[in-house]
Amino acid sequence: MAREHIVIVEDEEDILELLRYHLAREGYSVTTAANGEQALKIIAQKIPALALLDLMLPGLNGLELCRSLKKDPRTAAIPIMMVTAKNEESDVVIGLELGADDYIMKPFSIKVLVARVHALLRRRKQAVVEMDDTIRIHDLVINPGRHEVLIKGKPVEMTFSELRIIHVLARRPGWVMTREQIVDAVRGEDYAVTDRAVDVQIVGLRKKLGSRAEYIETVRGVGYRFKE
Ligand code: CA
Questions:
Q1: Which of 83, 107, 129 is the last residue of a domain?
Q2: Residues in the 5 Å CB sphere of ion ligand 1
Q3: Number of domains in the chain
Q4: Which of 188, 139, 134 is nearest to 161 (CA)?
Q5: Are both 124 and 155 inside the same structural domain?
Q6: Are 124 and 78 in a shared domain?
Q7: Of 57, 88, 110, 130, whose Cβ has the fewest other Cβ atoms within 10 Å?
Q8: Domain check: are 101 and 186 in the same one?
Q9: Alpha carbon of 57 to ligand 1 centroid (Å)
Q10: pTM higher than 0.70 for the full model?
Q11: Residue 110 C-alpha to ligand 1 middle, in angstroms?
């Protein structure tokens, strides 16, 4: 079996080397970049199974890099794990909003980081299998396998997380889902993320749905549901 390819973007040499060493030892094929521009070039040449992004980078920073990866349909589905400093909490929220999948704060335990990389890749594989079924509701079509949402036949651009959320809600119209259930469905049960991140995703999702935003209803004090 081909080894899964991971790109690490980090400007601090000792951390970069530490990550490279341990992930290579786990059997991944690893490519490193010391800045955002270099990372974009490397990723365009060969789409990795996962990208590990330090947020604080010289030049194009981690968030900007995340944004351009998620904007490009060729790279939008690459799982992104952000590596952040303690004082970058607001950047974590922005990153999740942009479509990053997970984050880990410095200083981190290398064992925990490796376990989360495994988990993210495993979840992504499960997600690909689960995402095969297309849902049609009136003029809305959700085709997760093709990373596609159509309204009246017109494509609506979505991040990976937004697509997962609308898919999970639309699968059972009328069913209320708590924020925790949405988090579990999107990222897997071993992920601890704030309710706030789900709310942020829903705001983005409604904006993109435009006149169809009403499909996603807020159930006060509980969570969300897809309109029946
Ligand atoms: Ca840095």
A1: 129
A2: 11, 54, 56
A3: 2
A4: 188
A5: no
A6: yes
A7: 110
A8: no
A9: 5
A10: no
A11: 17
Q: Where do the H-state alpha helices sit in 81-178?
A: 89-98, 110-130, 160-170
Residue 115 CA to residue 32 CA, distance in Å, equals 20
The CA-atom distances, in angstroms, between 47 and each of 73, 85, 98, 114, 142 are 12, 27, 19, 20, 24
Q: Are residues 149 and 94 part of one domain?
A: no
Q: Which residues span the domain enclosing 191?
A: 132-226
The first and second tokens of residue 200, run together, are: 């942020």
Residue 136 and residue 150: Cα distance in Å, rounded? 9
- β-strands 29-33, 5-9 pairing: parallel
Contacts of 57 (CB under 8 A, 6+ apart): 9, 10, 11, 35, 36, 65
Beta-carbon contacts of 228 under 8 Å, excluding residues fewer than 6 positions away, are 173, 174
Q: How far is the CA of 122 from the centre of ligand 1 (A)?
A: 27
pLDDT one digit per residue (tens) for the chain, 228 residues: 568 999 999 999 999 999 999 999 999 999 999 999 999 999 999 889 999 999 999 999 999 999 999 888 788 889 999 999 888 889 999 999 898 999 999 999 999 999 999 999 988 777 666 656 788 888 899 988 788 899 999 999 888 888 889 998 998 888 888 888 888 777 654 445 567 788 888 999 999 999 899 999 999 888 999 998
Q: Which residues contact 210 (CB under 8 A, 6 or more apart)?
A: 151
- Closest listed residue to residue 70, CA positions, set 36, 41, 44, 100: 100
Structure tokens given for 128 = 């690909």
